[in-house]
Structures are given as structure tokens and as C-alpha cells.
Amino acid sequence: MALSRKPVAGLRDNNATTATADISVPGSLRRILTGADVVIHAASYVGSEPRLAHAVNEAGTGNVIEQCREAGVPRLIYVSTCSVYGSGPHRGIRESEAGYHPASAASASRAVAEQLVLGYGGEIVRPSLVFGAGDRWLVPGLLKLMKVAGGWPGDGSALLSIIDVAALGRLISGLALTDPQPGRAFHAAYPEPVRVSFLVESVARILGEDCPTFLGDNERAGQALRAAGFSAHQIDLVTKDHWYSSGDLWRISGLEPETFGGSLGEFSSAYEPSGGADPR
Questions:
Q1: What count of other Cβ atoms lies within 10 Å of the Cβ of residue 9?
Q2: Would the pLDDT of 67 be above 70?
Q3: Over the Cα atoms of the chain, what is R_g?
């Protein structure tokens, strides 16, 4: 069963049934969760409003846990984010090697949600940058950043962990179908990081725009980005290394990264006119 706060349109799996509920409303999930073996909790607020971050990510996750407990659901998997670690550089770190240092209200509230889930005996999946169908953040964000800065802030050498939304879904479902891993957290990313210069050059090529100039440490670009509302943390995430060891989740889920074509090919094909979401 797929649960959404709004009606789900165009669900591709015809075998799925859908229900409407809101995790921020206590008691709204109980009848839906009864009889479930595994609940995958992938609802999060990712904006900058602290009140909403608390209501959805903290209180909402608390509601999910309480209603899982009341319905007798034995297993809960929460889709979180590597942003709970805060700003980098992060280079190939494992799940147990970094503590919580969130740099935004949303990430801080998701770190709290993680602790609630782990306290229930649940499992955590932490993607970093997710691309593909339905993308409203990664490619649009890269494009906006380039336009505001008049190029790319930095030299383009940063290495980033990325994953296609379809591969992420397969990893999570693979985890759900295997033996429980209570109290564990997993990174969800392609094993090999991608250089940010490849990402931004691909975006420019697909949209028919000039390849951006790599500006290095340019104070004028930094001022323009701050004036446009980009936080230091948001800039840091795509201009410094942020890549994570992800082998455990691939192994436990029983999947091979090669099945999905590898990160470079998948990123390019996801945004071609015939594939994936329109990043504009």
C-alpha cells in the first residue's frame, strides 16, 4: 500500500493500492497500518521553516512510531539524509564514522526523527543527492546556483554521492524484503562518487546552455549567492567533497550497481528529453 497526504496520480505499479492520510495528524494512520509487516517512512519536510520541520519531521515521525506500535508493526524503515552529518568535506565515511552535526532546521529535525526511529528498533536509509523522475531539487538547484553566481563557485573538483530515484527505491525495497537490521543506518548512493564538474556540464549540455565557468574562490559570486538566499551549508554541499561508503546497503539488498548502468550514465540519461523529469 502507498500512503500519501494527497491523492497519488500516475502511480506506475498497478498492483499497489493507495490511501490518503497525514502523518502530522495523530491517529490518522492506525487503520491503514494494521496488518503491515514493514512500514517505509519517506515523508519529510525539507524547507527552511523550523515550525514545519518540527511538525512534520519530529512530531510526524513520533506519530508514525506510536501508530506502528499500536498496530503491532514489527519493522520501520525511515528515509533520512546524509545532511544530518552537516557540512563537509566528507570522504568515503562509513555510517558509524560521523556524528550528528546538522546545519539546517530540516536536517536537525530529521536527526531527531532518526533517533526516534532507532529507539523503536527501526532502520535508517540516508541518501545524499537524489536525481531522476520528479526531481524538484538537485538539477533545478544546480541550475539556479549557476545562474545566480554567473558560473560555478569552486573549481568543479568536488566529489559527490548521487543516486537515481529508481535505484534508491529498489535499495529500500530490497532492504525491506530481507532480514531485519534493527538499529542500523545505511548510506544509499552509487558506490563511485561523481565529480561536480560532470554534473554541471551535463546540466548545461542537456538544457542547451553554455558550459559554466569554474570561478574558484570568487567573493563576488559568494555575495550574489548569499543575497539570493543560498545558505553557506547549501553551497558547501556541492562545492566540497560529500561522498559516502554505501556498500553495506547494496550487499544487504542483494542488488548490483551495474544493473542501473552506473552513476554517470544514469545521470545523463535521466534528463535527456526522452527520459525522466524536465529539470526546468
A1: 7
A2: yes
A3: 19
